[in-house]
């Protein structure tokens, strides 16, 4: 089953392809286009300004992913394909590195432990002990029998 977000992205891709050159559309397999036409959202109306370049358009992230897949698999030559795949891999490595730094287990616990220690130091205060009235009476009675 195709998600609603994917269906909306398909609508945006088909809208872009509608205004593209025929030789570009002919490079895309007919089965893929038929699949998209069958699974596109019937209610979504894309807000695409065809006067802008694709890079400047406000597209959904899945739309950008689909267009990237189309470009790599069907539209570019081998040299450019290698370059694009290298760039995508490099971006993924940078993203994974950032995630690793952000969610590093050692760093998370170090920061929390330092914060916890500071918070404990700030919260600990000495409170003088006052026995309750019941304890005072009990201690007084004990003292009388000694």
What does this structure look like?
The model has no long low-confidence stretch (mean pLDDT 84). The longest helix is centred in the middle third of the chain and has 25 residues, at 78-102. 71% of the residues lie in helices and 0% in strands. The termini are far apart. It is elongated, with a radius of gyration of 33 Å. The protein has a domain at 4-77. It has helices spanning 4-18, 22-27, 30-39, 61-75, 78-102, 105-123, 133-145. With 146 residues, it is mainly α.
Write the SSE topology.
Blueprint: H1 4-18, H2 22-27, H3 30-39, H4 61-75, H5 78-102, H6 105-123, H7 133-145
Helix pairs in contact: 1-3, 1-4
Keyphrases for this structure?
single chain, 146 residues, mainly alpha, 0% strand
What's the gist of this structure?
With about 150 residues, the protein is mostly helical. It has helices spanning about 5-20, 20-25, 30-40, 60-75, 80-100, 105-125, 135-145. It has a domain at about 5-75.
Q: Helix count, per DSSP?
A: 7
Mean pLDDT: 84
Order of helices and strands: HHHHHHH
Return Rg in Å: 33 Å
What's the helical proportion of residues? over 70%
Major sheet summary line: none
**Proportion of strand residues:** under 5%
Give the total of beta strands.
Answer: 0
Q: Roughly how many Å apart are the termini?
A: 85 Å
Apparent shape: elongated
- The poorly predicted ranges are none
Q: What structural class do the secondary elements suggest? A: mainly alpha
